[in-house]
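Q: Give me a protein?
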Amino acid sequence: MKPFSIDIPQSKLDDLKTRLDQARLPAPLPGDDWDTGVPVGWLSELVEYWRTEYDWRAAEKQLNAYPQFLTEIDGQQIHFLHVKSAEPDALPLILTHGWPGSVVEFLDLIGPLTDPVAHGGDAADAFHLVIPSLPGFAFSGSVSEPGWTRARIGKTWAKLMEQLGYDRYGVQGGDIGGAVSPEVARSAPDHVVGVHVNGGPNLPPMQMSDEEIAELTPLEQDRVARIQAFMREEFGYIAIQSTRPQTIAYGLVDSPVGQLAWIMDKFREWTHPRPTLPDQIIDRDRLLTNVMLYWLTGTAGSAAYVGYAMTEWGVQPENSGVPTGVIAFAHDVCIRKYSEGQNTITRWTDVDRGGHFAALEEPELLMADVREFFRDLRQS
């Protein structure tokens, strides 16, 4: 385990500027709207902002304000932030991002969670934070072997916390992080005091009978309808990334505009409310910093491979027995009855705002739910 600081060579930034200067955008398709993908009119403006105004060095400085480290576990490099609270009784908490996210997702949570008093909270709610980059993502680097399932990543996170000397800790995550976090508890149930996820620990069944749907609440029926719409209208990226991640990687690691469009498509679809442009919900600089971690490390293919070429989708894992809390935002499609068999749900909160990228869209709401969920588990 060794300290790490981000220091991107200027030559890489110069190369990016050259590519943006010479970018060749496609002709707009009829209507130039989101139904056919990211509109040329909207993306061209974001590319121009990236080219002329975005400041990577400022973002780099912001990230480097937090202690970062590299370690190796099971032959894989793991990058992580490790931000300790000054409060002596702080609870260690590991935060796991998803795709197409990164550790950038959690920047607005670091201060309030590690130093609650300075942010209007109670010292008793303080956390020591461990925020790793998933294997295959950003500064964790590409994976060199198969088998990086969510269960394996969960075991890796348990080993990371053991390396750091943490015997009792909590876990939190969304998207891939929401699938990995329960696996940490299954790997180390005697060490994980609680699992908190946004978006749910697993999805409802893809196929349901009309009778089964009729038994659901109106909110749950809406979630089923949106799952069905997703399978009709948005499943293409999963089909590509889970079957041909190497092929899509050529375009994404060679074209910054291609990488930007691939990620922005998901930020538009998964932020809430959907008709609102993603840069009106999340700060443009934060969106671009997230994209930069993919671009500068060339990990688009590896992230796609790890994120979606997993073998356990549809597998029903054993219940760890660890208390689990769920916060479901307006965009989310989780349904409690389909999560209770594999998880000990002790807290479930449905809210009427916010999207898939909870830590970026609704950091205060997410923070409050995390604090409240772990409040009674700290001394358990």
Summary: The chain has a mean pLDDT of 95. Strands lie at 2-4, 68-73, 76-83, 91-96, 127-132, 169-174, 192-198, 323-328, 344-350.
